[in-house]
Write a structure and sequence with these properties.
Layout (H helix, E strand, L loop, with lengths): L3 E6 L2 E4 L5 E4 L14 E10 L3 H20 L7 E6 L7 E12 L3 H5 L3 E10 L3 E3 L3 E2 L2 E3 L2 E4 L3 E4 L13 E4 L10 E9 L6 E9 L9 E3 L7 E4 L7 E7 L5 E8 L1 H7 L2 E9 L8 E8 L2 E5 L13 E9 L12 E8 L6 E12 L2 E7 L9 E5 L4 E5 L10 E5 L3 E2 L5 E9 L10 E8 L2 E2 L3
Antiparallel strand pairs: 1-2, 1-5, 3-4, 4-7, 5-6, 6-7, 6-8, 8-33, 9-32, 10-11, 12-32, 13-31, 14-27, 14-30, 14-32, 15-26, 15-31, 16-25, 17-18, 18-25, 19-24, 20-23, 20-25, 21-22, 21-24, 26-29, 27-28
Length: about 450
Amino acid sequence: MIPQLYLTYGTTTLDFQADGYEVVGGFYPETADEGMESISDQFNVVIRGSSGADVHSKITAIRLAFEHAKRHKDDAQAAWFYYEVDNTGDAWMSKLLNGSVIYDSKLESTWRHNQVVATIIVEHKPYWDAKDEIQVPLSNGNGTNDLNGLTVYNHDDAGVGPAHDNWVEIAAADVEGDLPGPTRLEMINSYATDALYILWIGQNWTDPANFSHILEGESSLTGTETDEASCSNAHYMLKALASGAEADMYMWLLSDSLLDACQGQYYKIIARFHLQTPYTVKFRLRLKYGSTLIWQSGQVTVDTSRNLQIRDLFTLRLPPWLLGQTNLGWLNMILAGQQSTGAPIDVKLDFLQLTPLDGWRQLECVGYGAVQNERIVDDGVNGSCYTDNGAGDNKSGRLIGYGNPIELYPGKKQRLYFLMHSDNSYNAEIARTISVKLFYHPRRRTL
């Protein structure tokens, strides 16, 4: 059994078991401690050449690889260090950060024979990713174990044929490794009207099977239910907010089963309004147990420079007490508002999404959105996000990514939840769709 050790950068590969290099004494990687940002490994290699100059060129090639690694630690041109126990093709890779070549004490005598025995020290990330990317089967009401691109809607209600699901599910058995693995997420804009401009993506591996993420406006215990075909479930809830003092607008019962599924994790409360967000309203979120206030946010105003129908309003833990426990009692969640225009304002709420933050990503186009059949790619392996024509050509880096690229947690069922906005003012159509594919590399702390 001969271990395979090699490194790559760009189109260059240095194989330490070929082309004049030979590892001696074996190799097995160290295990990083928790919290380490890098780890160093070392191995001994005999470097042979046809002449002293040839030997020197082989040493220089290793040093140039390390120099390249230092200069490209965080981009798509990174250098990678590969290891496999035997020559089976099942290599694991770790991003190379630095390295050095140390000669042994017999350099003078071995050089005369056109060879050198050296210790190679490699500094790399404190984990290993499988070399080969794996596509992850995705499921929702529009397909099971889909690999061709699963349809995702911009809302989630009872609509069927196709199902109005704004999430994809990943089976627990489809994610391997012992650390969360990096992904490449592909989303093709499959909607004909206007360009796709913003994507909000939340992740839930806490308890996706029992978690209900949508609070329809019309399920509020207060307000006036109004028919509207362009809204989720064909309704929104209207509340006339008087000018002056702060007032409660909407209230939902958060059931004991919902709070059990939330387990005290963090969530974003993202709202979709009918037509547009009322700019002059200061919003506040409150949680009450009966009539007792147990938590409230500060007042929040929306960015008046942005013509958005969907707004990221609050971030909180649900529930904010007894974290991680079950058999919880229900709570009331209240959305309050205050405005001082001197006249009542109609606030028209379509729905709130309780967006899980086990993972979180927001992708926003700069200048130009992604038109129909263009693809948005978020590549967490190489640290890049871009648009292309759907087939890998005409790439453009006109994307800004907020949060971290999605990683898949090993051995857990999980869901990704999506919301979308067009490049047209106040236009986040509920019928807007994307076609989603997901790829990942299993990750291990050690091999």
